[in-house]
Amino acid sequence: MLIGGLQKMSLLDYPDKVAGIVFTVGCNFVCGFCHNSELVKIEEKKYQKISEEEILDFLKSRQGLLEGVVITGGEPTLQPDLSEFIRKIKALGFLIKIDTNGTNPAMIAALNQEKLVDFWAMDIKASFEKYEKIIGCPVNLESIKKSIELIKNSVVDCEFRSTVIHGWHTMEDIVNMAKTIEGAKIFVLQKFIPRERLVNAGFLNQKSLSDADLQKAAKECEKWVKKCVIR
After folding, report:
1. Domain extent at residue 204
2. How many angstroms separate the CA atoms of 209 and 215, rounded?
3. What does the pLDDT look like over 23-47, one tens digit per residue?
4. Residues 178, 200: Cα–Cα separation, whole Å
5. 56-82 average pLDDT score
């Protein structure tokens, strides 16, 4: 496992659970608005490498205090030994939440088969027509579609979420994103907040949609998903 960060406690990242967060290194997207620029490109080696042993020792010391572990990135499903790593964490009694961009449905299916994940969170970056523009590179949309179905139909809790940026996502785009996950339990519209560690510093001048527009979008999205919330 390539691990580049550990947040020892979060009350926000795993719904209704107190969790630690493990950040994996490497992503096959280059979204300009990503907050974890140091974790995107492995070859840049800007991250602080943390060993599996350090993570597991920390978790052993937090048994009974933390309920779950969020594995995010980067893109966790690119890690070939992800399943083995999760088994070790679950052996300590922790729940597992995975954040994913949905580009590796084979890994998602394997993790579901072994019942290693307790909560899935998948990012929907854009309407399919604009996906490559938003993520900054080519993408296999069929893989994205397969992952949506695998996660939407899994027996564990899940959410789909989209970071919404003024000028990049129109009202029509947001509704189209909801259509791609039709029938999903929950769709989260995340406000874009500019921060210093963005992949593309040009996004520091961008902003989210207004609260009023987000509320309007959420109402429209609920024609396609069971619940749409703003975060």
Report:
1. 3-230
2. 10
3. 999 999 999 888 887 778 766 556 6
4. 26
5. 97
